[in-house]
Amino acid sequence: MTWTYNASLLSSTALYRVRFFCGDTDTTDQLVADEEISYLLTQTTSETLAAAWACEYLSRRFARDADKSIGSLSVSSSQRAKAFAARAQELKADDQILAVPFAGGLSISDKQTLDADTDATQPQTRIGQDDNPRTKTDRLPSSRWWWQE
Fold first, then answer.
1. Are 66 and 77 in contact (CB under 8 A)?
2. pTM for this one?
3. Are 55 and 70 in contact (CB under 8 A)?
4. Can you tell me the distance from the alpha carbon of 99 to that of 89, in angstroms, rounded to the nearest whole number?
5. Is residue 88 situated within a structural domain?
6. Would 56 disulfide with which of 18, 39, 88, 104, CB 3.0-4.6 Å?
7. Per the domain annotation, does 113 fall within a domain?
8. Into how many domains does the chain fold?
9. pLDDT tens digits, 10-26
10. Across the 149 residues of the chain, what is the mean pLDDT of every consecutive 10-residue run?
11. C-alpha–C-alpha distance, residues 26 and 5, integer Å
12. Is the dihedral of CA 11, 12, 14, 20 positive or negative?
């Protein structure tokens, strides 16, 4: 498994951005392999969500390890697990904020496009659906009412 990171390529490489969001940028402490991040990126269209999943993976990985201390030296895996779990929640919240709502049918061309799309969900009601086609407004006299004839 490989591990690569180049901060100068953040703007052009999704893998490096996911690694950056996770905080997995230390070459002496490589946490998630390139292949694992590439897999996460194939499972979602959002780099932020892929980073959140990677943080959840790291949280579970560190939660398995016990905290150890020998004399004055201690290694606290539970703290790392909590930190990655918190980061995963932050990234998920950021991913939801970045979602852009879509409101279709605001212009005439949008409405015509939606009407022509056979796969789009069509509205249950339409203007004029209850009109009686047998009545015609041109039959009404303009100067008198029908009972005045």
1. yes
2. 0.61
3. no
4. 16
5. yes
6. 88
7. no
8. 1
9. 999 999 999 999 999 99
10. 92 94 92 95 92 94 84 82 93 79 76 82 76 63 57
11. 9
12. negative
